[in-house]
Amino acid sequence: MSGLLALELLSDYTLRTVALGSAAIGVTSGALGTFAVLRRQSLLGDAISHAALPGVALAFLLTGSKAPLTLVIGAALAGFIGTLVVIGVVRTTRIKYDSALGIVLSVFFGVGLVLLTYIQQRPDASQAGLDRFLFGQAAALLQRDLVTMAVLGGIALLLMLLAWKELKLLAFDPDFGTSLGFPMRALDVLLTSLLVVAIVIGLQTVGVVLMAAMVIAPAAAARQWTDRLGLVTALAGCFGALAGVTGAVLSAEAVRLPTGPTIVLCVTGIVILSLVVAPRRGLAWRELRGRRDRRRLRLATVLQDLHALEVQHPGANRGHSEAVVSVMSGGALPSLRELERRGLVRRLGDDAWALTESGRARVEP
Amino acid sequence: MTSGQIEIQMLAVVVAVACALPGTFLVLRRLALVSDAISHSILLGIVLGFFVAGDVNSPILLVAAALVGLVTVVLVAVLQRTGLVKEDAAIGLVFPALFSIGVILISRYADNVHLDIDAVLLGELAFAPFDRLVFWGWDFGPISLVVMTVILALNVASIMVFWKELKLSTFDPALAVALGLAPAAVQYGLMSLVSLTAVGAFDAVGSILVVALMIAPPATAYLLTDSLPRLVVLASAIGAGSALSGYWLAYLLDASIAGAMASMTGVFFALAWLLAPGRGLVAAARRRARQKLEFAQTMLAIHLANHEGRPEAATESRVEHLQGHLRWEPQFAERIVRGAERRGLIRQRDGRLELTESGRLAANEAVAR
Q1: How far is Cα A224 from Cα A237, in angstroms, rounded to an integer?
Q2: Which of B80, B113, B208, B223 has the highest number of chain A CBs within 10 A, making it the mutation to test binding with A?
Q3: Would you call B216 and A42 a contact, using CB atoms and an 8 Å cutoff?
Q4: What's the domain count of chain B?
Q5: Is CATH 3.30.1370 the right assignment for the domain spanning A284-363?
């Protein structure tokens, strides 16, 4: 089945375009999203993607062209202006970051909607296709879209790699960076611009509404697996690509499965999996470790209790009953058996437990 | 105006005010983006409610959607409490997922009914007058207007009844806990209002513009006043103003009413940002300019006081000298001298400047500070 799909991927032109395009989007937004998530700016992606809508509409209104590069440039400019407004509002008023994001997101989107509906009722415009920016439509990807996306995404990733050390500093300790003489504000602008690029190239496929997930989810998933920034970024890129390709191919193959939501569900699946099974941080891992710690603690307590009993009853080498130990630490029988199995406790009679030599050595300092 | 137009405008105003009320507290509590999350994920609730009821006008849809809104809030809180992701990322993970499930369910199973994604996401106010509530031959007006009026009344009543609790838990949660006011209950109560309002408004203006109506008018009002009662009233008024002006903007452009309303909330916000008395960008710039002048005038007074009664006073107190000594441009120096004269700090005599009594006082005061 998977072999068949792979074969189909290679031979079917549309499917190949869709898969390659989604992979490009996934890698770019996943990798650059890492920085947004680490800097607690996850929802900036949401604001940028919504803010891009009026840019798309204006670019079309002004140039009359639907060439991918034109629309992408319009989207990028609008997204960038939206970011500037957020920063400006936060810096010059007492309105907080979350409200500033909310205002930019919804007002820009509203303006975009007005422009889109205005364009749609003009008789001359061959406007069809602009509304796919809302929800994305992978099946409509063409070769020229693919080239635009790949080139822009490649440039963004390349710039990220070139400024890697500085961006790392920006993400973790901007004040230290300032004290070293790095232009932190310029780097902030650079990183935000790269994020804008990563978002706008995905709008056509994933859609304005859900593009935020492509920025946040891969990074949130990758973060669970490792603590190293380089690995998180690389992993986030892989997760983004995986979800992008899977979702886009599924939606192109199945009937009435919209692309954006399908991709988002794929990436959400990766997130849930990572949250549960990732080593050390994952929930399952944490639960196991908790159980192990509790058991270890119980065994240590029972061992201590037996020792305390021996100290309080010197000379009485007949051992102590399970009931007595249970009074001290409750339900001690399984722990006593486990300790016996480990050779730390021995059974003298039917219900008489005593420390072995090695058990005593373990308790006594 | 036709009666349809009047009804649409009434609905727009009711929706805007109903959104602004809980929105005010979201803005103050830094929960603005929760409205974004809720307004998206309730789509899933609407779809699930539709599957249960089989009818888009059933009240079950409202209830299911409000419940999913609350589930969103709980999920975000749970995810955040694991410590594996931060709050902002938690919001950004939960609502796209729930929204996606909703969209996929609609497009696979409910595409043919009157529940299409564009309408749900973008809203269509213009169609509101066609769905009317008719009971026993009486026409009670458009259904959405009736529903939103009920929700508005509920919001007004809840905020009035729990005013004290809302206020305290917003501004001093620790004190609220100490007084036994259960801020968590207040929080979830507020979230229920937000969910319910978002569901009601969803039909009329769509999910994303609910965010505009909930966040932008309160934020605008927040730039204009410091008192909570005034904030609530002002936010409602700005919401209503955006609704009406948005309607007419849309009428002029023949474009989306909801989009135009959101755009107008943005216009009002931009106006307040620029022109708010005392806090706006213009007021701040003017204050800075005035402070610069006053500072320079005081400098001049100090300079004159330093040299007063000394042998060099004759040269130091010449206007031309200031340009060299204080590094002032000729024009600037002249402006400052004129300003200081007007304030009665100095007077000119034979091309020389001398301090007045109040100027001497001002200089001494400034130095002592």
Answers
A1: 14
A2: B208
A3: no
A4: 2
A5: no
Residue B258 has its nearest CB partner, among A113, A210, A264, at A113
CB A234 within 8 A of CB A289: no
Range of B71's domain?
3-279
Side chain identity at residue B260, one-letter code: A
- pLDDT above 70 (res A126): no
Among B226, B245, B279, where does a domain finish? B279
Contacts with B99 from chain A: Cβ below 8 Å: 209-210, 261, 264
B332 pLDDT more than 50: yes
Does residue A81 carry a pLDDT above 70?
yes
Q: Say how many C-beta atoms besides its own lie within 10 A of residue A255's C-beta.
A: 7
- Where along chain A do its domains lie? 7-277, 284-363
Backbone angles phi, psi at A353, to 5 degrees: -115, 140
**ipTM rounded to 2 decimals:** 0.87
- Positive or negative, the Cα torsion across A173, A177, A178, A183? negative
Residue B367 CA to residue B363 CA, distance in Å, equals 6
**Which pLDDT score, from 0 to 100, does residue A164 have?**
94
DSSP H or E segment with residue B328: none
pLDDT band of A96, cuts 50, 70, 90: very high
C-alpha to C-alpha distances, B94 to B29, B45, B75, nearest whole angstrom: 20, 14, 7
* Rg for chain A, CA atoms, rounded: 30
Cβ–Cβ < 8 Å for B291, B339: no
Q: Tell me which chain A residue has its CA closest to the CA of residue B218.
A: A99
Confidence of residue A1 (pLDDT cuts 50, 70, 90): very low
- All residues of chain B having their beta carbon less than 8 Å from the beta carbon of residue A108 are 266
Residues B99, A261: C-beta atoms closer than 8 Å = yes
Q: Please check whether residue B274 touches A, CB under 8 A.
A: no
- Cβ-nearest to A110 among B93, B212, B219: B212
Residues B363 and B349 in one domain: yes
Question: Distance (Å) from the C-alpha of residue B305 to the closest C-alpha of chain A?
Answer: 38
CA angle B129, B132, B135 (to 5 degrees): 155
Q: What CATH number is associated with residue B268?
A: 1.10.3470.10
Which CATH topology does A7-277 take?
ABC transporter involved in vitamin B12 uptake, BtuC (1.10.3470)
User: A101 vs B86: CB contact, 8 Å cut-off?
Assistant: no
Tell whether B161 and B295 lie within a shared domain.
no
Out of A95, A106, A220, closest to residue B85 by CB: A220
| Whether A212 and B96 lie within 8 Å, measured CB to CB | yes
- Smallest CA–CA distance, residue A9 to chain B, in Å, is 24
Contact pairs from chain A to chain B, CB under 8 Å: 208
The rounded distance, in Å, linking the Cα atoms of A258 and A207 is 10
Which chain B residues are Cβ-neighbours of A219 within 8 angstroms?
89
Distance of residue B178 Cα from the nearest chain A Cα, in angstroms? 27
Owner of token pair 């135009």: B260
Would you state the pLDDT for residue B326? 74
Among chain B residues, the shortest Cα distance to A111 is held by: B263
